[in-house]
Write a structure and sequence with these properties.
Jelly Rolls; 2 domains; 3-stranded antiparallel sheet
Length: about 170
């Protein structure tokens, strides 16, 4: 079950590819693990609450009105270690339509009970496909799995899994 919530405010299509803008609510304990995006910058701006952001080895505790930008290719993660939900804006430059599609699929899978409590797909093929769609590369020791994830994602697409997931969840949830 996905506990965080996402609302699309501006999509890549609406901005001519300039940016993707999301509003996200991150529940206490919510967040993700260290990862890299190779094709876009990511900016986190806190609307309410607090959000932890790790960029490389540097830790930031953002409060209302504060922002941090993660350049493409830099290891990072975000998390809510507080006791209350954090509301944030997430901007991607340039906009990333496949990231948007991956979010719709991920939230759809969660709604259908096909993810664990952290929102990670239970099916490894779904996981590798979402990572590839959203330009997420694993970091740290797990980075050794990136070539395998890429190969599996290509296979999954050839089998039509991506098309079926996109069709099922194209208007879902986020």
């Amino acid at each position: 079950m996905q506990r965080d919530r996402v609302t699309f405010l501006k999509t890549a299509a609406e901005t001519g590819g300039e940016l993707t803008l999301l509003e996200m609510e991150v529940v206490p304990g919510g967040g993700n693990s260290l990862h890299i995006h190779t094709t876009y910058f990511e900016c986190f701006t806190v609307i309410a609450g607090d959000l932890g952001v790790q960029i490389g080895a540097q830790q930031y505790q953002l409060r209302e009105g504060e922002s941090e930008v993660v350049p493409a290719g830099v290891v990072h993660r975000w998390y809510n270690s507080g006791a209350t939900p954090a509301r944030i804006y997430v901007e991607l430059w340039p906009g990333h339509a496949r990231f948007e599609q991956a979010l719709r699929v991920a939230y759809g899978l969660a709604t259908d009970g096909l993810t664990n409590t952290a929102g990670i797909p239970k099916n490894i093929l779904h996981l590798v496909l979402l990572a590839q769609m959203s330009d997420i590369r694993l970091a740290g020791p797990a980075a050794a799995m990136n070539p395998l994830f890429g190969a599996l994602a290509r296979l999954v697409r050839r089998l039509g899994v991506e098309a079926r997931l996109r069709e099922r969840y194209s208007t879902c949830c986020a």
